Each structure stands twice: as structure tokens, then as C-alpha cells.
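Recall the central idea of this unit: under ordinary conditions, the amino acid sequence of a chain determines the structure it adopts. In this exercise we apply that idea directly, starting from the sequence alone.
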Amino acid sequence: MMNIRLLIAGLALGLLAAGGCAGPKVITDFDPSAEFSTFRTFAFTGVTDRDQGGVLDNSLLRKRIEEIAGRQLTAKGLRQVGVEDRSDLLVHFWVGVKDEQRVESTDMAGGPYGGRYGTGTGYYGGSVITYEYEEGTLIVDLAESSKKELVWRATIVAILRGSPEENLELVNKGVAKAFEAYPPAKKK
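Accordingly, the structure predicted from this sequence is:
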């Protein structure tokens, strides 16, 4: 009876982890020599899809991602202009989705010396569970348009959810988190 409870608890924790409850993982990087205080305008240059399943071939999604990033940049004091208007920053997105698997052992028996060696479905009396999920990656690049050089990058990775609305909420949270420390502080 105790092993069944531990198995159920392990499964529940695994499902919570597989569901991406922690939110998107965000990593930012920047060129420390860039003069971020001189950037006043931005323009979107497009989206590059790194999609293997066709789900990102969607102009509505692209527009929504641009709106989310545009709100963040505007809140930081930048003004959106057209590409033809020679903006200070060019904004480009890289979007990708890939199928992932995570394998977990639910071995709660304690090994061959402390458990029931030889029973159950696994070597130590536990079992192995495979979780399949889709992982989405959004990369936001800011390039200095006059030099055509990358000055800032945010990489946002999350486990995708069931509906477009939930996934857009992940994008919104990830982009907001990425721009929290923008413009980056000069290193001394």
C-alpha cells in the first residue's frame, strides 16, 4: 500500500514538472560595448521559423509576438518605426518547436539492499515512465541597424501547452521577464 502511494506521489510530481508550471526559462545576453542609451527607435525585420511540425506557419502568431515585444520596447522608452525609416535597432525573432522526451524512474524501493529486488517492472521494483511534450523556443534579437551587429539577445524556452491562448501567455511572461533588465547595466 505504501509503495502505491509513493508511486502516485511520484507520478503527480512528474506530471507537474512536465506541465511546465515553473514558466518559461529566460536567458539574456548583450554586447557590453553597445551604447544602449543612444537607441531611441526600433523596427521589426521578421520572423524565422525553426518549426518541424508546421504550427508556427501562422501570420497571426507572428503579429501577436511582435505586439508583445513592441509593448515591452515601448515601455522602455523606444518608439516603433518602419524598417524603411532607419531605426536604431532592428528586432528579429527566431521561433522553433521540437518534440522532446523525458524519462523518469519511479523507483521508490531503495535499491537491491533496501527494497524488494526482483519485483515490479523495474530492476529495483519501480517502473520507468516516458513523458512526451513539445518544447517551444523564442529568440528575440536586437541588432544595431547602423552596424548590422547583434547587441542584445533573449532566449525563451518553455514547455508548450494545449491552447494557443496558454502558449501566448507563456510568450508574454517570457518576453516580459527578458526585458526586466533592459537596457542592461554597463559593466564596470
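The longest strand covers residues 89-105.
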